[in-house]
Write a structure and sequence with these properties.
Helix content is 36%, strand content 21%. The protein starts with 8 loop residues before the first helix and ends with a helix. By secondary structure, it is of the alpha/beta class. The chain folds into three domains: 9-85, OB fold (Dihydrolipoamide Acetyltransferase, E2P); 92-248, P-loop containing nucleotide triphosphate hydrolases (Rossmann fold); 268-353, Orthogonal Bundle (Ribonucleotide Reductase Protein R1, domain 1).
């Protein structure tokens, strides 16, 4: 059974020390409020964390949907006790409300970034999801849903392609069955995808269409603001008819980045390439002479909103770096003090020249 869920020789090698303790592998296929369901060599088992695991686990160590675990199986009872989590690949993390880190999904090969072709389509939000996807190590693909309800699909696809940078952009209409084969092609047997996107973009409807049955609860989008409400309340790994695996997650309107420097760099490769052309290596990209960023914005070669989105994500990452580093906080204050003085001097000079 575990072969169906992506068990591999590499995982087998990692599991050797756990096997010596009489434990068996189990992949988390359902995660809901501290309760788990595992796919194991003994079939599906309900599972809980062992007391020792709970005592020793650090923040972010608890199993999530997609994780491979080492567990003590009690097949006669239909239960298991999770003793350890195997090293993770393809990990999605985000900030939790307390400022810590929350692992959303693990062992993901493909990140399907869902966005609805309606009034709530946001390029800035897609950039955030792309940054998280590139950082995780998964291959991103943008899936634009509800195409049948959109009168200007081609224009919106072109707009999304300007920020995709290598990620394929697919359009689907799940209820009509349009575009589903292109999504299925990204998930061959044993390959795991995660479906990420805001509430109401049609993720559960897409899962149901790909599976061929109503596995996930769905809810109509609100008509007043084109935004959705949460329908999925747990994370579940679903086996598709073709053998691929798909992880549905509760809708996340904001995906707070966590240690995603490389992901942001990959998402904004065009912006970073421009920044490298500035006359001064420490250019603040505001009013300095020879600033390639400002020149590109003025020439219409760089969208000002895209630049502001990049700056916002960089500030978010910088805040994470500074939070526990007093020296970094002092250095950041020095930089912003210098920028403020430069900006005020620029205004005074401009006023004198008028």
């Amino acid at each position: 059974m575990i072969d169906t869920y992506g068990w591999s020789e590499r995982l087998q090698q990692q599991f050797v020390p756990h096997a010596a303790q009489g434990l068996v592998p189990g992949r988390v296929i359902v995660q809901q409020r501290g309760l788990y369901r595992l796919a194991t060599p003994h079939g599906e088992l309900a599972a809980e964390l062992s007391g020792r695991f709970v005592h020793e686990a650090q923040p972010g160590d608890h199993p999530v949907a997609g994780d491979w675990t080492a567990c003590l199986a009690r097949p006669g009872e239909g239960r298991a006790s999770i003793r350890a989590v195997l090293p993770r690949d393809g990990v999605f993390r985000r900030k939790d409300p307390d400022g810590g880190v929350q692992v959303v999904a693990a062992h993901v090969d493909v990140a399907l970034l869902a966005a609805s072709l309606n009034a709530d389509l946001s390029l800035r939000r897609l950039e955030r999801y792309l940054a998280a996807a590139w950082e995780s190590g998964a291959t991103p693909a943008i899936v634009l849903t509800k195409a049948a309800l959109c009168p200007n699909v081609e224009d919106l696809v072109l707009a999304v392609e300007t920020i995709a940078f290598g990620a394929p952009v697919l359009t689907v209409s799940a209820l009509e069955g349009e575009g589903l084969e292109a999504v299925r092609a990204l998930l061959p047997p044993g390959r795991t995808g995660v479906l990420l996107g805001s509430s109401g973009v049609g993720k559960s409807t897409l899962v149901n269409a790909l599976v061929g049955e109503d596995r996930m609860a769905t809810r109509e989008i609100r008509e007043d603001d084109a935004k959705g409400r949460h329908t999925t309340t747990h994370r579940e790994l679903v086996v598709l008819p073709g053998g691929g695996l798909l992880l549905d997650t509760p809708g996340m309107r904001e995906l707070g980045l966590w240690d995603a420097d490389e992901g942001v760099a990959a998402t904004f490769a065009d912006v970073e390439a421009l920044a490298a052309q500035c006359r001064f290596s420490d250019c603040a990209h505001e009013h300095e002479p020879g600033c390639a960023i400002q020149a590109a914005i003025e020439a219409g070669e760089l969208d000002a909103d895209r630049w502001r989105g990049y700056v916002k994500l960089q500030r978010e990452l910088a805040w994470l770096d500074r939070r526990d580093d007093p020296l970094a906080r002092r250095e950041q204050r020095r930089v912003w003090t210098h920028r403020t003085k430069t900006f005020r001097a620029h205004l005074k000079q401009r006023d004198r020249e008028r």
